[in-house]
Every structure is written in structure tokens, then in C-alpha cells.
Amino acid sequence: MPLNNDFDVIIIGGGITGAGTARDCAMRGLKVLLVERHDIATGATGRNHGLLHSGARYAVKDSESAEECIRENKILRSIAAACVEDTGGLFITLPEDEDAGFGLDYQKKFIEACIKAGIEARAISPAEARAMEPSVNPSLIGAVVVPDGSVDPFRLCAANVTDAAMHGAKILSYTEFLDFIREGDTILGVRVLDTRTGQKAEYRAPVTVNAAGIWGHGIAEKAGVHIGMYPAKGALLVFGHRVNNVVINRCRKSADGDILVPGDSVTVIGTTSTKVPFEECDNMEVTPDEVRLLLREGCALCPALADTRILRAYAGVRPLVADDSDPTGRSISRGIVCLDHETRDGVKGFVSITGGKLMTYRLMAELATDAVCRKLAVHKRCQTAETPLPGSADGRIETVSKHFEGIATLGQKGAAGRQGDLAGKIRFDSEEDKQLVCECEQVTLGEIKYAVAELGVHSLSDLRRRTRVGMGTCQGTLCIRKAAKALAIALGDPSLEGKLAADYLDERWKGMRPVGWGDTLREMEFMQRVYKYEKPYSYDEV
Amino acid sequence: MMKFDVVIIGGGLAGMRAATVLQTEGLRCAVVAEGLSLHDAPRSEFKAAGGTILAGDKVVGGVFEGDRLRSVRTEKLGDVTLEADWFILATGKYFSKGIVADMDRIYEPLFGLDVLYEQDRSKWFDPAFSSHQHFLDFGVRTSDGCALKDGVRIVNLIPAGEVLAGISSAEGDAKARIQKSALDAVQMIRRN
């Protein structure tokens, strides 16, 4: 093995936790390797609401989580401005909540708990709520304003990975962890498989961090340690346009389908919570019952959803962890779990960071990095709470536009919205570069070229996670071929075009199938027609 | 009331094909064509032969008498109904809303005609986009070429084109089959 396969720390998992940990470790001067078997943000990171929690949801039941959330909420607003949108949030009380014991008395208790946790919460009248968010259920009897927002988890993850790389970290996507290199009770490194080339490799480091979300369960088993994890599936629906501009929550005990989040050009309702077997975690299908439930609850928050086209359905798996102190495994912690397996299990050089949530990823990363630094006897302070992520230093369109010649086009504005100040690195050398490939999301050829050159893109799904290509109302129907061609050329192999397009069609199809009726089915028929019917109509040939 | 020999509902490939042939053969035809997808060439041919096009209008319902469709109403003509000896239903499939799917069922929205479809929605789709998709097979039922309503054969209502079960423009050979179904409708009207 060549020497450059030696690192200070190896991180397994390219979700937000792994990405954040890679960034923190790299910023503290460690030589970092991150391995991810698919693309970044393909697990739970990319399969949630994209809600920038204020913490209000946890205020009554779990004040610790609530406090964590509001702290991290404020931090993300300052370090990840390009990934965050300050939509504000409402917690509404409906007449039926009154009957269920969550009426205005509960609202009072809720506001008190929020304020105690440091969350600015203030009651407004139903009329004020309707004025603030016209799509809200008009029959509401009470509303509370909280500092919720939305966050693009793909961009957030990509920004962390990019910053880690800028600090010298080596990022290997499409690299699957196979096994540990082990000597006695010490983990010395990992054996991995490059899933694109089929090549195996070994990497060594004094510490390995397991940040693989629900898949961390299996990874820990391979190190001979047990973490009592429970896969909890959460299903969500994406609607065809931005129905609401303010996050709408139900002011009651947390339940299924009670958060409606606007994000970019769409609105997302979620989520459910169902225990699923580990075998299912790799291929989640949303069931008809889940769709029904989400629609029903979504319509209670915002009646217009009943007549809004559903773009697609998706599901992720929360890595819930049983409390170590509870031998029955029944007591589930939603908090952050950082395990030093040397003190816990006698396995040296191995740390697991799990539990938690998207909102607290930075804190999780800080805790994991602290554990790594303790092991390596490195004394460096964490700076991730103060240092803006790439793209978030100054992403205002006025600033970013200075990089572009003349008046910024819609595509350039879109790029600035997505890539923040990094949009200045996008080359618009020719008119072609300014042309839109994806019209729904205003993605230009220039941005696609940039994503391929700088952001580790290998497939159209990878490209979607960085640029929103094909995520809009047409679900790629009108741009997949164009995007596939542009990507194939940018990757240096034009012959890939057909395969890239076909893979992406299957991926889009998966999300559309569970909601395949009404206007979604119309779109599906159209998609079939566009891609399957090869010859144009001709009237005379019969 | 306006009286025609044949009223064709839908101005797409099937509807225009049937209308043009029938009008050219001397029958008085009217095409009610919602939307802008009129096929230019057949449209001018049809008009040159003296056919009537109600462009941008849409049929909103009809009056049945026993096993016959007597007349249809359109959005723009209001109380003025269109009567005919024959009606050709060429409203297409999902995209043009010739048939409509909701969460639990598929229906024909104009007349409530009988639709052939799979009840279990999980069987509508194949996970592989490029494989055959069962939902494209669904459409109105026919008996000897005529539509059925609550099991009764409507003797003067002939579905043609994609509204039919078994024909979809997403299938490779659909173009020919769509036009053949239109010519089958013409044949039936000629014979009677």
C-alpha cells in the first residue's frame, strides 16, 4: 500500500453527519478521508422535509432537543446562508385539536415552553395568520409564529464536503466500505470497494468514524460492537408548486403528516414514522396508506393541497438509537449519540456518531471531532459555528452578479440562489453556457459544467442534488435528454448519454408511481410518450 | 339545436381522421375540438370539404335515450345542443382527460362510460420506466365497436383512438392503430 493511503481519520458515510465531521476534522488540521458508497446526501440527509427547525416542535416534550435546535438554527442561518431560506413558521390550532386536548390551553403551554427554550414564539390571531400565509386552513382558531425556515439538505451537504476538500480532505464517493483492518482490539483502517471500477483498496488511520446513519448499525457489527438501532421510515410527498410561503405546523403533540415546508419551487408534506426491517432500508417504497395519511393531514394544514398536483413521493430512514441504559431497548433517544467504542466496548480507534437530526448535524460533527481529537491528542478548537460554508459568505445576487457580464439572466440568478457566492466560479463564456437546460428550475449549461468540474457529479441524480436539474414540475420530462447530453459531454464520454438518461428516468419514475393518479398520471403518460414514442406523428401513413 | 350526421368529440389524430373521411364522403360532420392540438393538415382538408369545427369548445354532457346518445351540450353553445345520428368519441387518454384517474378509480368524465382498468393501483406501473406500463392499456370498453354505459351498448356512440382500452400513443405501433380505429368508426357508419 502506498503511503498516501494513510490518514489521521477515516469517516464512513457521506450524509450530512459524515460531511460535517469531515469538515470539522479537516478544519482542525487533520488529514481526512471520507468514504461514501453512493453519492453524498443519498440516505436520510436527502430524504426529509428540508425543515430548518426552530425547535418549537420539541419544546413541550424535550426541552434539550428544542434548545439544541434553536442554537443550531441560528448558527446555520449565519454559516449556511446560501442553503437556508428564512420563511418563518406557524404552529396552528384547528377546531378538532381542541376536542383532542390540544386547544388554546395547550397553545399557551407551548408558547411558554418555547420561550423557556430560547425560541421566540408569539401568538397571533387567526386573521393575522391568514394574512401572513393565505394558504393556511382558514378555520384555524389560533396560531403561533416561530423562527422556522427551510434548508436545502443537498446543498448543505455539498457545501460541507466542498469545504472539507478545500481544507485538504480526500472525498471518495461511490466507494463502499467492506470491512475493517483490525489488529487485536484496535481498528487500523478500512477496506473499500470502488463501485464504479470494481477496484478494492485499503486505507489506514488511527481513528475511524462511523457516520453512516442507519447503515451504521451494520458497520458497527463488523467492528464487533452492537448499537441498538431502529430504522424508522418516514414518508413525504412533494407538491407541484410552492403552495405556502411559511412553514405550517400543527400545534399539538407531534404526529404524522403535520409539517408543511416550502422549499425552492415546491412544497413538502411529511412525515410518517414506521419501524421497518433493516433489509428494507436500501429500497424504500411509499405505500398507498402512507400517501392517504399524508394527504389527509396535509389538507388539514392547507386545504388547497387537495387540488394540487403531487409531484412525487419519497421516504427516508431515521437512525433511531435505543438508550444504552435501557436493556429492553424500548426507550428510544432522539438525541445525539456519540460513542467512543474504546471506553464503551473495548474496541480502540473507533467512534460512532448517530441519532440526532439534520438540524443538529453540525453539533454532532463537533462532538465526533472532539472525540477524534481526544484520541489523537490534538488540541484545536472547533470553528464550524463561526466560519461560513463555501457559497454562504456573501451570496446576495448583487454581489454574485458582479462576476457575470451584463445583466444577470434568470439562469444566472438561479445559480446564485443555489450556489451562493460560488456561483461566481461558474463560467458563462458563450451564449450556449447561458442557455437553460432545465427550465423548471432555471439551470444553465454553465452551472452543469461547473457542477461536474467542481462538485463530484457522476450521474443525473448526482447533478440533481447539486443543481435541482429535473426536480421541478415536469420531473425532467422536458430536460432529461438535454441534461444527459450535457453531462455526458462534460464527463468526457458522449456515449454515456443514453444510459444516464435511462437511469434518471427510472429514478424519477420511482417517486411518481406511489402518487400515479390525476395530474401526476397525466405527466407520467406524457413522459412515456416523449421517451418511448420514437417517431413523430405523420398523418398519411396508415 | 344544431343537427349533424356525425358529431366528433375531439380534434386529435383519430377525430380529425374520421371526420375528414366522413365529410369528404358527403356526411355533415361537426368536430368539437378542445385545446390547440388540432392537426393543421387534416383541419384544412376537413374545412375545405365543408366540415364544421367548434374550436376551443368542449363537450360537457349529453342526453341519452335508451341505447342511443341523442345530443350533446358544449360549454360555449350553452342551450344550443348538437344532435346527430352518430357520435365519435375521440377524446384521448389521460393527458387530454379523455379518461381520468383519481386515487381509487378510473372513469370516462363526459358520459360516465364503462372503462376497462385494473382495480389494484400497485399493478398499474412497472418499476422500469422503459418496460410496458399497464396503465397505458386502460380505456373505454366497447362491444362491437360501440361504447358501453352501465353495461348497455350505446349503438350510435363509437370510441376511436387513445380513449379506447388497448391503444396508447406511448406504444410503438400506436400511430397506425389510432388511425385504424378511426377508419373502423367510419366503416361502421358507412355500413349503417
Separation, N- and C-terminal Cα atoms of chain B: 24 Å
Question: What is the number of helices of chain A?
Answer: 19
Number of E-state strands of chain B: 14
**What radius of gyration of chain B results from the CA coordinates?**
16 Å
What fraction strand of chain B?
25-35%
Chain-averaged pLDDT of chain B: 93
Rg over C-alpha atoms of chain A, rounded to the nearest angstrom: 23 Å
> Which segments of chain A are poorly predicted (pLDDT under 50) over 5 or more consecutive residues?
535-542
- The share of residues in extended strands of chain A comes to 15-25%
Structural class of chain A: alpha+beta
Oligomer: heterodimer
Overall 3D shape of chain A: globular
Principal-axis shape of chain B: globular
Question: How would you summarize what this structure contains?
Answer:
With 542 residues, chain A is of the alpha+beta class. Helix content of chain A is 36%, strand content 21%. The longest helix of chain A has 17 residues, at 63-79.
What does this structure look like?
The complex is a heterodimer of chains A (542) and B (192). Helices cover 36% and strands 21% of the residues of chain A. In chain A, strands 5, 6, 7, 14, 15, 16, 17, 18, 19 and 20 form a 10-stranded mixed beta sheet that branches. Chain A contains 19 helices and 24 strands. Residues 535-542 of chain A have low confidence and may be disordered. Chain A is globular and about 65 Å long. Chain B is an alpha/beta fold and 192 residues long. Chain B has one domain (2-191): FAD/NAD(P)-binding domain, CATH 3.50.50. Chain B is 20% helix and 30% strand. In chain B, the strands form 4 sheets. In chain B, strands 1, 2, 3, 4, 5, 6 and 14 form a 7-stranded mixed beta sheet that branches. A 3-stranded antiparallel beta sheet of chain B has the order 11-12-13, with no helix packed on it. Chain B has a two-stranded antiparallel ribbon with strand order 7-8. In chain B, strand 4 (59-65) and strand 5 (68-74) form a beta hairpin. In chain B, helix 1 runs parallel beside helix 3. Chain B starts with a strand and ends with a helix. The interface between A and B is medium-sized, with 31 and 35 residues.
